[in-house]
Design a protein that fits this description.
Radius of gyration: 28 Å
Structural class: alpha+beta
Number of strands: 41
CATH topology of the largest domain: TIM Barrel
Helix content: 10-25%
Largest sheet: 8 strands, parallel
Strand order of the largest sheet: 29-28-26-25-24-34-31-30
CATH superfamily of the largest domain: Glycosidases
CATH architecture of the largest domain: Alpha-Beta Barrel
CATH class of the largest domain: Alpha Beta
Shape: globular
Number of domains: 4
Number of helices: 15
């Protein structure tokens, strides 16, 4: 729940089997004494989980992943649900507290213990805790009931205001729930309800830690030293602290301990400075090892016994985003992450929800982390339409050296500015920031996803200034100033600063941008003319493999995807339409087909060929986007492509589908995200410049060979040294008059790799390209992950 890991606090799990009772909200009383006889559904439930999975297990719904089956859940959006479980209370010392903790309740709920209300919840995204020590029955069963009311009904009962705007469904605006669950272009509409994260009893001793926060203030790389500020706060029942002491130590990854301080205590909270020497720094992937230490705080009573102990993993590093508010010819500006004094070129991806049903999230986490590390990503952007991830997620990012750009969970909307909603926002931010701020991986807080640019999605709101939004400009910065003052903050992504607004809100003047646009030719002017220093969303469609399509679309609907001008309903559902017969997203399937036609001049009439052509189109596009930004280092400073993995069976921009089967783009991205990479630039004066980029902190000497698959001859052979964290021009090769594939190889001490370039005029022949892929062995480089 928080960053504090007090070893004396015990947990008793209430996960597992529960009873689920429910029915239409108008037919089922919210009173716990009355619902029993009114409900039409009474089934077993699993916690953590979601009502949809329980309904499937009970046989009331068909499996939701196939075809249009997810639409079955629309009939349950107005249901009221009661979760029930009996438990025996543990025996605890009189001085201890007993808390009932829900790490995630979705969403509008009231909690009852033995018929007595403990309180209400209204935020899916944060944990909820109730003190129950004087409410439980000792030595007998206790009945726990959680009533969950329908959010769609509650959202519609509220009267919205004209200056609010939601891209999608207005009932989500004031409900603090994962926004994607109302329907998005990357996930289905499944509004859901449930106890989606663990439930447990927690015993809290009278003496316990409440907060610990360590921040690296400065480092000296030459001296291998760091200055670290530690803030601590604990609870004791007595007033006098006479004889109490605080002992602080640091354990390295080998378990070797350094005793740092042992001081007399005069207060229950305070600050102290640690001057550390002979240390290893935490580095992001590619620049060094992500060294971690265990910070240990021991609270010693007057007898010298450990009364409370806190353990926390920390990384010693400095990290900031150096950014300007505008980029123009006169004011080029910048947008670059700096770690331990070194600029870092960002090669990363967007992370969307692990699953449309969040009770399933944990089963996907390790596969996601394996993919991210294998692709050599040094940053994940946690997109603002989902949830705050589990502690394990951030722990793994710490361990792997993967930085986290973290949106707060607001997206594609102009949210309410009422006092009540702002207070909800403040509470949420305080809880989340305190939980995550100690992680070395945390690089940036971003106020929201696309709320600034959403002002231009409807004429009324285009007159409004995004800088008047109190959530991103007032509430969140104020929370961060108090609780996480050294972390960089970006009000929105993309961020329309006051200066950009005053100059007419030109997206071409925003240093960091989302490049979607017409989604036509990936080498078209929309992409090539962007002046952005950093792109945090960019993607291209690619169909899943045949095996995955067969798992999500029924045989009679598998091919063709369109007949008589109408998109097949199951392809539409995977496109991804929120309701049956909704045609809003039909264009996404046609868009993918058009992208194939741009590259190959035709849309294949067989499914297997269409899949292959689509995956090639996506792979070449993603490769081009990444290469263009890498070759522009340091005028360009990073790319977070969209996206690594689907959270549902669908047809999308993701490079790995829901079943954890990578598309061809995976292999292409893996090659062009190597720390040292050689790439072919677009032609200048009849020649292709060859560029080498080095994202390590050491000079690298390599021999580069560029050859033609069609001519079977080398076009270039050159040896050079690529400077540390820099780039160098290798040479150039001629423009091909016909279709060809240039193969690039490089070899050096500690660095070797391969890449390719699709040369010659379009269109290309699909069969010829397929042969080239086989020659290069690209498909053999696609790893196998555990399938869902």
């Amino acid at each position: 729940m928080t960053s504090v890991s007090d070893t004396r606090q015990n947990r008793i799990s209430l996960d597992g089997a529960w009873e689920l009772v429910g029915g239409p909200h108008q037919d089922v009383s919210p009173q716990v004494a009355a619902f029993e006889h009114q409900a039409e559904i009474r089934i077993a439930a699993r916690v953590p989980g979601n009502v949809e999975d329980d309904l499937v297990t009970a046989g009331l719904l068909k499996p939701l992943e196939m075809g249009e089956a997810a639409y079955q859940t629309l009939d349950y959006e107005g249901h009221r649900w009661f979760f029930r479980k009996s438990f025996e209370a543990p025996l605890i010392d009189q001085s201890e507290q007993l808390r009932l903790v829900f790490e995630g309740i979705d969403t509008l709920a009231e909690v009852f213990l033995n018929g007595q209300s403990l309180g209400e919840t209204r935020n899916m995204l944060i944990p909820h805790s109730f003190e129950i020590g004087n409410k439980v029955r000792r030595g007998e069963a206790n009945e726990l009931i959680v009533r969950i009311d329908p959010v769609v009904v509650a959202g519609r009962e509220r009267e919205p205001e004209p200056c609010e705007f939601v891209n999608g469904f207005t009932e989500r605006a004031a409900i603090r729930k994962a926004a994607h669950m109302y329907g998005w272009d990357i996930l289905p509409r499944m509004v859901s309800a449930g106890l989606w994260r663990p439930v447990y009893l927690q015993t809290v001793p009278a003496v316990h830690w409440r907060q610990v926060f360590a921040q690296t203030l400065s480092i000296d790389r030459a001296q291998r030293s760091a200055e670290v500020a530690v803030f601590w706060d604990f609870v004791v029942p007595q007033v006098s602290l006479k004889g109490w002491q605080l002992a602080i130590s640091l354990d390295d990854s080998q378990g070797i301990r350094r005793d740092l301080k042992k001081d007399r205590l005069f207060a229950c909270s305070g600050h102290l400075m640690l001057s550390l020497e002979d240390i290893a720094f935490w580095w992001p992937k590619g620049l060094g090892e992500p060294a971690l230490y265990t910070l240990r705080l021991e609270l010693l009573d007057p007898a010298g016994n450990i009364a409370a102990e806190h353990l926390q993993k920390i990384g010693l590093r400095t990290l900031e985003l150096v950014k300007s508010e505008i980029t123009t010819e006169a004011e080029p500006g910048e947008f670059v992450f700096v770690v331990n004094g070194e600029k870092v070129f960002i090669k990363g991806t967007n992370h969307v929800p692990l699953d449309a049903l969040h009770g399933r999230d944990d089963r996907h986490l390790e596969a996601l982390m394996a993919m991210t590390a294998d692709l050599n990503c040094n940053m994940l952007r946690i997109w603002g339409g989902g949830v705050y991830e589990t502690d394990t997620f951030y722990d793994r990012c710490d361990e792997l050296g993967i930085m986290v750009w973290h949106d707060f969970m607001f997206g594609c909307a102009l949210y309410p500015q009422t006092a009540d909603f702002l207070e909800q926002t403040r509470e949420e931010a305080e809880i989340i920031v305190k939980r995550l701020r100690h992680h070395a991986c945390m690089a940036l807080w971003s106020g929201n996803n696309e709320n600034d640019v959403a002002h231009d999605w409807f004429p009324l709101h285009s007159k409004l200034n995004p800088n008047d939004d109190r959530i991103s400009r007032e509430i969140l910065p104020e929370v961060l100033r108090r609780l996480d003052p050294l972390r960089s903050y970006l009000p929105s992504s993309p961020y329309v600063s006051q200066k950009v607004f005053e100059r007419g809100k030109k997206t071409s003047e925003i240093p960091e941008d989302h490049l979607w646009g017409p989604r036509d030719d990936f080498k078209g002017p929309f992409y090539t003319n962007s002046p952005a220093h950093f792109v945090s969303e960019i993607g291209y469609h690619g169909a899943p493999c045949l095996e995955s399509l067969q798992q999500m679309i029924e045989p009679d609907h598998l091919w063709p995807f369109e007949q008589d001008g109408k998109i097949d309903p199951q392809w539409r559902a995977k496109a991804i339409a929120s309701f049956p017969d909704e045609s809003l997203h039909d264009g996404r399937i046609r868009l993918m087909a058009n992208q194939v036609a741009i590259l190959f001049d035709a849309i294949p009439d067989q499914l297997e060929s269409f899949i292959r052509a689509s995956q090639i189109s996506q792979a070449e596009a993603m490769k081009y986007f990444i290469e263009r930004f890498r070759m522009g280092k340091w005028r360009r400073t990073g790319i977070l492509w969209w996206n690594i993995r689907d959270g549902w069976p669908l047809i999308s921009d993701a490079v790995v589908d829901y079943y954890n089967r990578p598309k061809l783009a995976y292999a292409f991205i893996k090659r062009v995200q190597q720390d040292v990479c050689v790439m072919v630039a677009e032609p200048e004066n009849g020649r292709h410049p060859i560029m080498a980029v080095n994202d390590t902190l050491n000079d690298v000497s390599i021999e580069v060979v560029v050859s033609s698959l069609e001519q079977s001859v080398p076009l270039l052979r050159h040896t050079l040294t690529v400077p540390a964290n820099g780039r160098a021009e290798v040479g150039d090769v001629p423009v091909s008059s016909g279709a060809d594939l240039y193969q690039l190889t490089w070899q050096g001490a500690g660095s070797s790799g391969r890449n390719h370039y699709l040369a010659g005029p379009r269109p290309f022949d699909l069969e010829q390209y397929t042969q080239w892929v086989a020659q290069l062995g690209l498909e053999t480089e696609i790893p196998a992950f555990t399938t869902v």
